[in-house]
Amino acid sequence: MSDTNTYSIRVEPTKESRLSQVDFSNLKFGAIMSDHMLVATYDDGAWQDVAVVPYGDFTVNPSMSALHYGQAIFEGIKGYKFADGTVSIFRPDKNWERFNKSAKRLQMPEVPEGIFMDGLKTLLDVDRSWVPSQEGTSLYIRPFMFATEGALGVHPSKSYTFAIITCPVGAYYSKPISLKVETYYTRAAEGGVGFSKNAGNYALSLYPTQLANDEGYDQIMWTDANEHKYVEEAGTANLIFRIGDTIITPHGDTILHGVTRRTIMELAEKWGYKAEQRKVSVQELTDGIKDGRVSEAFAAGTAATVTHISRIGYEGQDYELPPVEGREFSNKVLDYLNQLRYGKINDPFGWNFII
Ligand code: COI
């Protein structure tokens, strides 16, 4: 996608930084936001007022359509600090592309490169001291857009707010997770909004996830809407398996096309593994776990990075995955990505976007 527009980005620094209040040795995911945020508004068919301002509340119109009809989308990106202090963002161009695909599906305006990418750069430059440097930490970056027109008729909003907020984070999951295969509730059907990162896809996961939590599982494993026979993704991340000697991830427009998932599949191919995007049935998984063909299973996402799966529950039975230590591919890919993102090795793919 190309956009030649450049936008002037006003910067209004905070008068009172909150940085000294942060305990960087104990970062919880999404608990404390950095000093600044980027905000831009869309009105009268044009983007305007692009600014980095102190993090703070929005004033919202009670009848705005994001609240009533769910025109709201978002992204998840991570920024890292190298040992020499360099700040780098991991593949934000791919998130920008996906953001605009979500926007199109939700009948929202696309956000131009001059706002999304240049805004990201300006924001991270202003808040570079918020990017943590300890192993396992990063700056989580959350671009989002919501419809702001105050009108209760069901139609695309005429006005929108685009914003980027950030927060220093530790691991989203600090240990391997267990998943319950969901065989009743549905995340997305063909032709729906499964591929888009809209707020509603997460709202609808909360109740079935709570039911899975009540049964002792950390997360759910979504299955297809038609038969509940094929694996789709977890509630908070994509899924990747090693079955036999092949690295496999479910595909299709009912799942989110994750940047981490794509990165891992690209690495698998480059490293000479067989890598496939195809349907994976729950039966293939459970049989494969029983006979040892499924040797690795993990969740892949910006927040989750690579999170090993320890156990899968299906129709009242638990299937235990092999010990994490022996998982050759997922440990290798996690280690490689950590080294790359913290600037410890060369970046042959140009994935690090240096600020
Ligand atoms: C991300 O991985 O960035 C996400 O948006 C998932 C969210 C559940 C934290």
Automatic annotation (TrEMBL):
The lineage of its organism: Bacteria, Pseudomonadati, Bacteroidota, Sphingobacteriia, Sphingobacteriales. Pfam families: Aminotran_4. This is branched-chain-amino-acid transaminase. The keyword Glycosyltransferase does not apply. It comes from the Bacteria. Acts on leucine, isoleucine and valine. Pathway: Amino-acid biosynthesis; L-leucine biosynthesis; L-leucine from 3-methyl-2-oxobutanoate: step 4/4; Amino-acid biosynthesis; L-valine biosynthesis; L-valine from pyruvate: step 4/4; Amino-acid biosynthesis; L-isoleucine biosynthesis; L-isoleucine from 2-oxobutanoate: step 4/4. It is an enzyme of class 2 (transferase). Its EC number is 2.6.1.42. Its cofactor is pyridoxal 5'-phosphate. The modification N6-(pyridoxal phosphate)lysine is found at residue 197.
